[in-house]
Amino acid sequence: MASEYPHIFLDHAGNPVSFTPPKRKIDPVPLPIRNKDAHGRRLAAALEEIKQQAEALDVERKSQGVTTEFGVILEFQSEPGFSLTLSGLDRRQSGIELLNVRSHAETTDGPLIELATVYVPFGKLAILQGLAESYLTKINRFGKPPNMNLIDSISNIRIAAINAFWTSDKPFPIKGEIVFWEAWLRTGAKEARDSIEDAFVTACVAAEIEV
Question: Which of 8, 31, 127, 150 could form a disulfide with 85 if both were Cys (CB 3.0 to 4.6 A apart)?
């Protein structure tokens, strides 16, 4: 080293010092108090209704010439004053992806409600239904239902409307207002880009949206 870096002088060797990182106390996220059976059945019923709506949307898309099996965008809502367990909504190994998180209050000084927009690929809604089913029917080694942190944090699930993608501080455009939108397409693999763009243009034409 001396010949390669003559300007560096190492006069003293370092002494090893043992180090133990301090323990971190992670407080559990507060959850609403739930009646497990009633809450689990309600969310399971909501997911079943969403499944039927998604199937109807798929038929409608195909009738309009959109043949891509897109999936469905869902909106999850927390109880007022509580947060969603967001890590349970982002399941990228299954293609289920958390798109955005927003908060709003129903009144000026009311508690915040958290909203999460989640993309569920075609055929993957059964994964979320399975989480609700396990919550209802099983008990883990700690004596609690599986997926409790996720399921208990959810107040409502519905198919997302267009305003679920609106994250601006400005108000959402009102009906009848003429606006210009910049659309970012989620293309995934490079070879799928052309087909996704074609499907987008086809959908816009069917909806009488100028591209």
Answer: 150
Query: Beta 156-159 vs 97-105: how paired, if at all?
Result: unpaired
Tokens of 127: 């994964």
3-state secondary structure of 76: strand
In the prediction, which pLDDT does 188 show?
Answer: 64
Taking the C-alpha atoms of residue 201 and residue 86, their distance in angstroms, rounded to an integer, is: 32
Strand ranges for the chain from DSSP E: 72-77, 97-105, 112-120, 156-159
The count of structural domains within the chain is: 2
Per-residue CA distances from 171 to 21, 164, 178, 181 (Å) = 47, 13, 14, 14
- Residue indicated by tokens 């002088």: 9
**Is residue 159 domain-shared with residue 208, that is, in the same domain?**
no
Residues 87 and 131 in one domain: yes
CB half-sphere exposure, 144, CA atoms < 13 A: 9
- Residue 92 is classified by DSSP as G
Do 196 and 137 lie in a common domain? no
Describe the chain by its helix, strand, coil percentages, rounded to 5: 35, 15, 50
Q: 116 and 189 share a domain?
A: no
pTM: 0.76
Residue 81 or residue 211, greater confidence:
81
Residues 183 and 164 in one domain: no
The residue segments making up the domain with residue 205 are 179-211
